[in-house]
Amino acid sequence: MRRISPFPMLAPAAGVFAMLCLLLMPEPAADAALDAMTLAARRLIPLLFPYSVLSTLMLRRGWLPSRGPLSALYRLPGDCEGVLFSGMAAGFPVGASGAVQLYRSGRISREDSARLAAVSSLPSPAFLTGAAGAMWGSVRYGWFLWIAANLTLLVFSRLTGNDGKRPTIPVPDSRGTESFSVDFTKSVTDSASACLSVTAFVVFFRVTASVGSALIPPAGPLLTMLLEFSAGVREGAALGGIRGAAFTGASAGFGGISVLMQIAARNGDLPGERAFSLKPYLCSRILLAAVLSAASAVWAYNFPMTAASPVVSVADASPALLCAVPLLLILLRSCSPEGRKKLP
Fold it and tell me: Which of 119, 94, 144, 126 is nearest to 248 (CA)?
């Protein structure tokens, strides 16, 4: 007699159960959705959208250097310099989008695109200073998290890298073949779509975390951290002390299932067999969560902080930070071999 597996029925049953929970607990779901959309309107979209447009346009026009100190330092081949810098400056999912563009055009291999998506996908300095730092009343703490995250991903990339010796697929480079107006229009529309996608993921997983926390209150903080990192960062600020700082660091490092799904969505733009593996991203998130959690605990022990407010919008992003990134992009371009050739 053939044995029937119950697993194919688990996903539909879970979906029905989730819908019933939303119907029976509309207030927590509505409050969480409003909170997530407020976060997106006040913090995520204003910080993500301009950088996404600029980085996408620069990648389309070939304005970013194809090789430089960052790609060599991270042991990455191909045109990874601009994507690395854009990911560091703008946060996810800009880095993953750039990795997909480079892989689709044949400028890097499948394995290197997976590693590039992993090491260029991290919270932006604007979020860590203007949100996490503001919640804890210390902008220096936000910068500390960003520096620690970049150093951790640098070590991860070097340990898993190949010195850029793997040959890339010989596909013709099509940069700059479209007019500037076409590239600019596509950059704006693609970035708007990306912001909408990010908002949708944040809202869905924030609602899921809220309903799950209402069902199982003791598991609420852990569930929030696993599902949606911005809410996890706020949970840590609400806890306060060394324990809360460690929780904030772990949330910022892991990124949550929400960010994982955003990376998977970018990867879904590629045909089935060409899609790169998400294993490097998952491995890097586990490492990053552990390192940032421990580093945050050490920071809170040596520099005691009092959580100012578990509210994301308490402080605006620094104008100096917003102006610094485009200027650094121009400087990076001028320091590249291509940029130096154009200098008089």
Answer: 144
- CA–chain centroid gap for 287, Å, is 15
pLDDT at 64: 65
pLDDT digits (tens, 9 = 90+) for 86-116: 788 777 777 888 888 788 877 888 888 889 9
Q: What amino acid is encoded at 126 in this protein?
A: A
Name the DSSP letter for residue 69: H
Q: How many CB atoms lie within 10 A of CB 303?
A: 12
Cβ(127)–Cβ(296) below 8 Å: no
End-to-end CA distance of the chain: 81
Which stretches of the chain are DSSP H helices?
10-24, 26-39, 45-61, 69-73, 81-90, 94-104, 110-119, 125-127, 133-135, 139-160, 180-215, 220-227, 229-239, 241-254, 256-267, 279-302, 319-335, 337-342
**Alpha-carbon distances of 333 from 315, 321, 336, rounded to whole Å:** 31, 19, 5
Length of the chain as a residue count: 344
Cα-to-chain-centroid distance, residue 29: 25
* Residues in the chain, pLDDT under 70: 1-11, 14-15, 17-18, 47, 64-67, 78, 162-177, 268-274, 307-344
Contact residues for 332 (Cβ-Cβ < 8 A; gap 6+): 64, 65, 68, 81, 82, 85
pTM of the model: 0.75
Q: 254-273 pLDDT, tens per residue? A: 988 888 888 887 776 555 55
Burial class (CB in 10 A: 0-12, 13-18, 19+), 163: exposed
Q: In angstroms, rounded to a whole number, what is the distance separating the alpha carbons of residues 278 and 113? A: 10
